[in-house]
Design brief:
The protein has helices at 8-15, 32-39, 53-65, 99-108, 127-136, 170-175, 177-182, 185-207, 213-230; strands at 21-26, 43-50, 72-76, 91-97, 118-123, 139-149, 152-161. It is α/β, with parallel strands linked by helices. Bound molecules: S-adenosylmethionine.
Length: 231
């Protein structure tokens, strides 16, 4: 994979970046996503933020190699600290991390979210937690997409600030309001796999010398939710 040959997962993230956007890609690694967006003239400007020196240097190298320094700035920074007011960022992309880490990054600097028109997020795990954070911070989910690649199933979540308060049900938080609605073959595949994994977890809990009663109840409820959605 490189900027000219993005993975299916990052291509899906890229599709949700509006034409002419000013993007901050947080946890950019090689900077492939902003570089691809710049090469296809989809964005006006980008910041490629990275907290680790090695990947940051990779991004610097990629940007120089592709002659994109006039469009993309690589910054060594923790999360949203990569963004300055003068960047006039309107879109943030965060891909390839756990939902908990994405949530922490968004939570750490609420002031950096002022003026943001769109978040394009691709958590590897922990999607319900991220959706809960979005709901509690009035970012409404506008689109979702599931992507299967190399034996993994990823979710892409697109959210925009809402002026009206809204709530999601436990089904929408767990499965995704749009994904639930689409009920695609890849959605069924993901949740059938999760059902089998979580059944094993429940069995192990029940076989413990001191079965954790509260956790077992929680697990049974979770399994019930999955079965209901798959039925
Ligand atoms: N976004 C790319 C993608 O989806 O292919 C790279 C994903 S890579 C698995 C995650 C990257 O996020 C790593 O390069 C890591 O150093 C970076 N990262 C983790 N925590 C971060 C933080 N708080 N701020 C900026 N970058 C971070």
């Amino acid at each position: 994979m490189d900027a000219q040959n993005l993975s299916h997962r990052l291509k899906t993230v890229a599709k949700f970046v509006p034409q002419g956007a000013r993007v901050a890609d947080i946890g950019s690694d090689h900077g492939y996503l902003p570089a691809a967006l710049a090469l296809q003239k989809q964005i006006e400007y980008a910041v490629a933020g990275e907290v680790v020196k090695g990947p940051y240097e990779n991004a610097v190298h990629e940007i120089q190699k592709l002659n994109l320094a006039n469009v993309i700035q690589a910054r060594l920074a923790d999360g949203l600290e990569a963004i300055d007011d003068s960047d006039r960022i309107d879109t943030i992309t965060i891909a390839g991390m756990g939902g908990a880490l994405i949530t922490q990054i968004l939570e750490a600097h609420p002031e950096k979210l002022n003026g943001i028109k769109r978040l394009v997020l691709q958590p590897n795990i922990g999607e319900p937690r991220l959706r809960t954070w979005l709901m509690n911070h009035q970012f409404q989910i506008m689109a979702e997409k599931m992507v299967a690649e190399d034996g993994h199933i990823y979710e892409v979540i697109v959210a925009e600030p809402s002026i009206v308060p809204f709530r999601y049900s436990k089904y929408e938080l767990t499965f995704g309001p749009f994904l639930l609605e689409q009920h695609s073959p890849v959605f069924i595949e993901k949740w059938q796999g999760e059902l089998q994994r979580q059944k094993t977890v429940l069995q192990q809990m029940n076989q413990a010398s001191k079965p954790p009663v509260a956790k077992i109840k929680q697990q049974e409820e979770y399994l019930g939710l999955i079965k209901e959605v798959l039925s």
